[in-house]
């Protein structure tokens, strides 16, 4: 039996819609892979999903990813998966991607590590496609590799690893509001103004430079979303107040995580991230009347890794 | 008398529409600033423009830029400018920007260097606005500072200096075809598809990372324009053939320089750039029947600088 932890992730990161993401240090999912009699992939159990995830191996991202791995390896060995969800579903912090990544990495370990990371990435993305109907390389790649990842291309994958400035930390507020990714995407439409798009690529270029030079002031100025956030802001009650609270607390920037409802802030230190996270939660709770969770952690430098079974 | 050389520049650089540019080593413009009796700015002479540039100080980018400098410095000293155009007009390699930059740097030297570079940048952009009716920070900033420059914001200027990989060189083909910048811009429309825009910022982010890591293979994959070039390609006869010739010659990438008609290619060495430049010229000349020029040079690491008068 092999247990693998894969961290959640923040995608889009304000100015990198669909192409940029970073790994959290925590929370994440753990998937245990065990050999089973007979070939194929089965799901032995799912914990922490409140019964909401499919246990049909073809429709669950974790098992679908492993099925793709097994298909590519042409192995007849059977694998049973036990999924421990540490990430809330449909929260915007890469829950489905983390399960797919943890599952393929665990299965690959169990089989003696026949596949390189690039193949595991493709299998995890295939699992997301099967389980969610869409692929999120900006979630899957940080969950697998850790750090900040730019996906120059999703298919074929062209993955660019970006440096993480020392001390960089984040706060993630998860409002107890559910947003369906497909609906959030429809809000965007399929056209954008050239002016807004130009501002977006100016900011993304500057953000990449800021990560390479550890220029946190530039990073802060670059954390602006001219494309998705303006159209999706209404999905999160009090987003303006949450952003203002993060800024007052000294965060470098604050925006939707993926398609929401989670909201992330980046900060120069874990202490500032903690202050910002508390302020963001307070701002949301005052406006909304529904609950929320906050996580505060360093930006995750490590991706999926084997952990010992408790 | 002070003479200042400012190099031409390539803007857009395939994936950085309106925000990215790099300096050429040559060609460029030289502007000589001399003290004159009486206050204000005058144009003593313009060489190399075939009589096409305005000698009305308010309508010439060089003198308009110096007028802005004088206004800001509140000086009553008068300055006469002599402009030596080394750059062809309306060619897409930052001709007006180079004149404006050379002029303000020369005037500032003549006055004892009272203004910092940031102020000179603002004055050069004001000169472009007065002389051309629009501002091109992606030309003006490389011409002033040298190297690759990302303009995260034009107003107020937020300028990001990007590293130049060792040996990086370029070829610029200048087809003898004239394109009016305003007309080239109208071709773009004001809306783009979210899909094309997303590919553009993925490529620009990757290009910035490639410059920081000297990853020329990534640089090459990133030199793709999904926004402007597809709509402007018809302005340059044989663009597809020129691009194919550059690729066959080993160039890293090839696209329109600014709004054209010039076409640039980047290459890993000056030798490859030379081969590419010749191939590009041959491809254009075969298709078009009109003339063309080619320049081959290192990417310019230095911006505007004082030169001795010959």
Number of helices of chain A: 10
Helix content of chain A: 25-40%
How many beta strands in the DSSP annotation of chain A? 12
CATH fold descriptor of the largest domain in chain A: Ribosomal Protein S5, domain 2
Instruction: Flag low-confidence runs of chain A.
Output: none
Number of domains of chain A: 2
Largest interface: A-B, 39 and 39 residues
Instruction: Report the oligomer.
Output: homodimer
In one word, what is the shape of chain A?
Answer: globular
* Estimated share of beta-strand residues of chain A: 25-35%
* Estimated structural class of chain A: alpha+beta
Report the end-to-end length of chain A measured between terminal Cα atoms.
12 Å
Question: For the record, what CATH class of the largest domain in chain A applies?
Answer: Alpha Beta
If you had to describe this structure to a student in words, what would you say it looks like?
Chain A is α+β, with helices and mostly antiparallel strands and 310 residues long. The first copy, chain A, folds into 2 domains: 2-162 and 301-307, Ribosomal Protein S5, domain 2 (2-Layer Sandwich), CATH 3.30.230.10; 169-298, 2-Layer Sandwich (Alpha-Beta Plaits), CATH 3.30.70. Chain A has helices at residues 61-73, 95-110, 117-132, 137-145, 181-186, 194-213, 216-222, 229-232, 239-248, 270-288, and strands at residues 2-11, 20-36, 40-47, 78-84, 148-153, 158-162, 169-175, 191-193, 253-256, 263-267, 292-298, 305-307. In chain A, the strands form 2 sheets. In chain A, strands 1, 2, 3, 4, 5, 6 and 12 form a 7-stranded mixed sheet that branches. In chain A, helix 1 packs across helix 3 and helix 3 packs across helix 4. The interface between A and B is large, with 39 and 39 residues. Strand 8 (191-193) of chain A pairs antiparallel with strand 8 (191-193) of chain B.
């Amino acid at each position: 039996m092999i247990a693998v932890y894969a961290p959640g992730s923040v995608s889009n990161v304000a100015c990198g819609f669909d192409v940029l993401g970073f790994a959290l240090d925590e929370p994440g999912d753990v998937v245990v892979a065990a050999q089973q009699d007979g070939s194929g992939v089965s799901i032995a159990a799912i914990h922490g999903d409140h019964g909401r995830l499919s246990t049909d191996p073809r429709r669950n991202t974790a098992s679908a990813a492993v099925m793709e791995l097994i298909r590519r390896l042409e192995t007849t060995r059977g694998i049973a998966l036990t999924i421990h969800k540490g990430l809330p579903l449909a929260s915007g912090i890469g829950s489905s991607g983390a399960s797919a990544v943890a599952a393929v990495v665990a299965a690959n370990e169990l089989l003696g590590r026949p596949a390189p990371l690039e193949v595991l990435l493709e299998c995890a993305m295939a699992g997301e496609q099967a389980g969610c109907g869409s692929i999120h390389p900006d979630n899957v790649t940080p969950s697998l590799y850790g750090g900040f990842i730019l996906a120059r291309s999703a298919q074929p994958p062209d993955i660019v690893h970006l440096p993480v400035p020392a001390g960089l930390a984040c706060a993630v507020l998860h409002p107890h509001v559910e947003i369906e990714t497909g609906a959030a995407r429809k809000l965007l439409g399929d056209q954008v103004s050239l002016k807004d798009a130009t501002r977006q690529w100016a900011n993304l270029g500057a953000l990449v430079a800021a990560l390479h030079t550890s220029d946190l002031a530039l990073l802060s100025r670059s954390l602006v979303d001219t494309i998705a956030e303006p159209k999706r802001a209404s999905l999160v009650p009090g987003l303006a107040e949450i952003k203002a609270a993060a800024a007052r607390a000294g965060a470098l920037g604050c925006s939707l995580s993926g398609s929401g409802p989670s909201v992330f802030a980046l900060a120069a230190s874990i202490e500032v991230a903690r202050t910002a996270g508390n302020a963001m939660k307070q701002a949301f709770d005052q406006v909304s009347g529904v609950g929320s969770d906050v996580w505060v952690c360093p930006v995750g430098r490590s991706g999926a890794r084997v952990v010992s079974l408790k």
